[in-house]
Write a structure and sequence with these properties.
alpha/beta; 2 domains; 7 helices; Rhodanese-like_dom; transferase; Sulfurtransferase; GlpE_sulfurtransferase
Amino acid sequence: MEFLQQNLAWAALAAVSGGWLLFDFVRNQGNKTLVSPTEATMLINREDAIVVDVRDQGEYGKGHIPNARHLPMAEIARRASELDKFKSRPIILCCATGARSGSALATLKKAGFEKLYNLRGGLIEWDKAGQPVSKKRK
């Protein structure tokens, strides 16, 4: 008890951090479309998943997942048919943080795509996980 009193700020920080992690875990339990960078890599390697980057041209040019196809969010509804040949394969959507790719996922789902995944945390988490980034144009 004395330890907690002397380290109240640290104990509070640990409690808040733990609570946030638990909240995030519970919130994402029902969402099977979110994949971590590791899960995305396994889908790419084991199931020949396609990666679609929905960021704008400037963001994509600064670095993207190797072999990612570029299809900006603003054009996703109009150009969804470009992905028709991949309907039987898993498609991983990514952006900077996972927000735009979540919207793109909903758009493609309405277009009849079924094996859709959203890279949780986007390219920020991909980079943090030490995964490769390319500047080559696909």
